[in-house]
Structure formats: C-alpha cells, structure tokens
Structure to design on (95 residues):
C-alpha cells in the first residue's frame, strides 16, 4: 500500500494552535465579563447615591412641613362659610 507521508510536525502543530486560540477566546471573554461587571457596579453606585440624595431631600422637606404644621394657623371665621358655599359637588360615576 502506498500511503502518502504525513508530516508529523504539521499534525502536532494543529492541536497546539487550537489550544492557543481557545485560551485567547477564554481570556477575551473573561476580560469582557470583568469590564461589564465593573460598569454595572459603577452604575449601581450612581443609582444608590441619587436615591440617597433624594431620600435626604424628602426627609428635609418633611421636617420643614412638620415645623410649619406645628405653627398655629390664623383663624378666620368669616371666610369659612363663604368657601363652603362656593364648593361645587363633583359628579361621580360608578360602573
């Protein structure tokens, strides 16, 4: 039988080359995942900072509202009946 001679160096290089390409693909995938994770973490930190600032502002507003509510309101007995007479009843539709 006449078999063509296969060069053993070519057949030995192919698995090494495939292993190097596979290793490079794994490294690129890990680098992309790390970049995505750090981007998501930074985005989440920005959202937490914005929510904290909003909650602080809401607490300050609520505190100032409570202080204003504790102050006595000026009483005007003559204005109350006039306001009640001008209030129009709203129509309600029930289905």
């Amino acid at each position: 039988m006449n078999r063509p001679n296969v060069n053993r160096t070519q057949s030995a290089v192919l698995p090494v080359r495939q292993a190097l390409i596979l290793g490079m693909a794994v490294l690129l995938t890990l680098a992309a995942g790390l970049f995505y994770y750090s981007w998501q973490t930074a985005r989440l930190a920005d959202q937490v900072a914005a929510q904290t600032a909003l909650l602080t502002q809401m607490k300050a507003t609520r505190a100032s509202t409570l202080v204003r509510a504790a102050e006595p309101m000026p009483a005007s007995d003559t204005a109350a009946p006039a306001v009640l007479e001008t209030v129009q009843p709203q129509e309600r539709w029930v289905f």
